[in-house]
Amino acid sequence: MPRPSDVGVGVALVAVNDDGKVLMLHRTGAHGSGTWSFPGGWIDRTDASMEETAVREILEEMGVEVSLSNVYHLGVSTENFPDFRTVTIYYWTRKFKGDPKILEPHKATEWAWVDPENPPSPLFGSVPKMWPMILGLARSSDRFQHAKQEKILRCLARSGHSVINLEEAIAAGLTFSVQKEQPDGSRRPVKTSLSFEQAFFCWERAMGENDDLNINIWIVPDSLD
């Protein structure tokens, strides 16, 4: 079938700060004016990848620098508008440089660090569909730091490896599992054989999907199984 001319593919980048807040823009212009969304835009022919599009857009729109190595996939969402359809690939990052500012006032009038527990209104297009995952990123912010320093390193120490810290575990190429503690104290694997970045993302999603914020979800090396 011929390529449709009324379908657009774009990206959005969710930047999460140390407080678990996400960087958002208040849109203006013809498309979504008055709504809140994330830095992003259409994929350009000169972009080598969709991740590169995300990095380029947040720099152009807000002057925030993000390394490609610190951009991770979050999800995909579609949205139907009266005269066209969009497919948006969402990415996230925790590492960035620069103070946000409005560099393209024809696209956005203001920016804000937003608490995902209290999202602004109205949200743009497919953003509401992605909010549960965004909430998971925010909820896991402080919790992950504690897990990294205490639980993961304790698991590594029990594994019998000579690895003494998380950075060395990653450098050694260990794979990880995400496990959820059951009421009887046992653990049920959620995902196995993951890189640490994949395990981290799975862990964050699992934390965000649980109503009980005290639930124990672990990242452990597969070699412990």
Mean of all residue-level pLDDT scores: 79
Global Rg: 19 Å
Distance between the termini: 49 Å
Largest beta sheet, briefly?
A: 4 strands, mixed
CATH architecture of the largest domain: Alpha-Beta Complex
The general outline is: globular
Description:
The chain has two domains: 7-125, Nucleoside Triphosphate Pyrophosphohydrolase (Alpha-Beta Complex); 137-224, no CATH class. It is 28% helix and 28% strand. The chain has four helices and ten strands. The chain has helices at 50-62, 127-158, 166-171, 196-208, and strands at residues 7-15, 22-27, 36-37, 40-42, 72-80, 85-93, 108-114, 176-181, 187-194, 217-221. A four-stranded mixed sheet has the order 4-1-6-5, sandwiched between helices. It has a three-stranded antiparallel sheet with strand order 3-2-7. A hairpin with an 8-residue loop joins β2 and β3. The longest helix is centred in the middle third of the chain and has 32 residues, at 127-158.
Brief sketch in words of this structure:
Helices cover 28% and strands 28% of the residues.
What topology emerges from the helices and strands here?
Elements: E1 7-15, E2 22-27, E3 36-37, E4 40-42, H1 50-62, E5 72-80, E6 85-93, E7 108-114, H2 127-158, H3 166-171, E8 176-181, E9 187-194, H4 196-208, E10 217-221
Parallel strand pairs: 1-6
Antiparallel strand pairs: 1-4, 2-3, 2-7, 5-6, 8-9, 8-10
